[in-house]
């Protein structure tokens, strides 16, 4: 969909890393690139807060699922950034709940 736009995908050091996943009687190779959803920084600015949260959740879930399957590669920068964003969101939610309880 956004193939003509620059993306983090082309810069991912794990792009060539592969893990074999059984599917019936044959095996297919899956890469992080296969399950990553890439948006340019400009495209990310057009996402609503709910869309951004969904993007973060999907990307982190895809990454964590591959790691749980034994997929070993350097953590992509986008994942580190999304994990930091997730931590901030959790802290903000905790602060909001504390303020509402007062």
Question: What's this model, at a glance?
Answer:
Helix content is 53%, strand content 10%.
Rough shape? Answer: globular
What count of helical segments does DSSP give? 4
Reported for the largest beta sheet, the result is: 2 strands, antiparallel
Helix content: 40-55%
Tell me the series of helices and strands, N- to C-terminal: EEHHHH
Name the strands of the widest sheet in spatial order.
1-2
Question: Which structural class should the secondary elements be placed in?
Answer: mainly alpha
Low-confidence stretches: 1-11
Mean pLDDT: 78
Distance between the termini: 47 Å
The number of strands is: 2
C-alpha Rg, in Å? 16 Å
| Beta-strand residue percentage | 5-15%
Which helices and strands occur, and which strands form pairs?
Blueprint: E1 19-23, E2 26-30, H1 32-35, H2 41-45, H3 49-68, H4 77-101
Antiparallel strand pairs: 1-2
Q: Describe it for me?
A:
The chain is mostly helical. The protein contains four helices and two strands, in the order E-E-H-H-H-H. It has a two-stranded antiparallel ribbon with strand order 1-2. Helix 3 (49-68) packs across helix 4 (77-101). The protein is globular, with a radius of gyration of 16 Å.
């Amino acid at each position: 969909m956004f193939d003509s736009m620059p993306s983090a995908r082309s810069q991912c050091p794990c792009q060539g890393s592969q893990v074999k996943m059984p599917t019936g009687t044959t095996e297919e190779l899956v890469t992080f690139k296969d399950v990553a959803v890439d948006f340019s920084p400009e495209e990310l600015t057009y996402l609503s807060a709910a869309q951004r949260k969904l993007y973060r959740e999907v990307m982190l879930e895809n990454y964590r699922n591959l790691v749980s399957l034994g997929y070993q590669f350097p953590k992509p920068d986008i994942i580190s950034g999304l994990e930091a964003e997730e931590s901030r969101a959790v802290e903000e939610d905790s602060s909001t709940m504390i303020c509402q309880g007062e």
